[in-house]
Amino acid sequence: NVIIEYNSKFEDKVKKFLVDICVGEFGFNSWKDELENQKICEYKQNGGNFWIAIDNDENIIGTIALKNLGENKGYLKSMYVDSNYRGSKIAKNLMDTLLDYAISNQYKSIELGTYTCLERAVAFYKKNKFELKEQDGDILIFERKI
Q1: Which of 4, 17, 51, 128 is at a distance of 20 to 30 A from 100, taking alpha carbons?
Q2: 45: pLDDT confidence band, cut at 50, 70 and 90?
């Protein structure tokens, strides 16, 4: 397994991966159109980035993105790992890749949003030094200072 920066040759595979997890596994049906129509390359504009974890056959097994919010702040997006690879350090490697990039590009903090029902994700973010900043119903906003 290897983590690489996103490039357009993986566009269809990445979109299918995201729909399969967000809609198929987690049931966020309202996200389908947005996921299928997003312009992944836009993350790389303005100092953000998008990474993918691939297996030996170039199947997508994980994703993570960093959106630049300006003022040395970033927003973590699209952190997903194929259910067959959870617990195998893919998420940690994706997170480490994002944090290394953020540090080398002078980010001072990273925020993310998740849901209370995604307990495994919440535990992972806490383990990676993200602190709960606010809660609005089922939506949790975490922040990590760098």
Answers
A1: 17
A2: confident
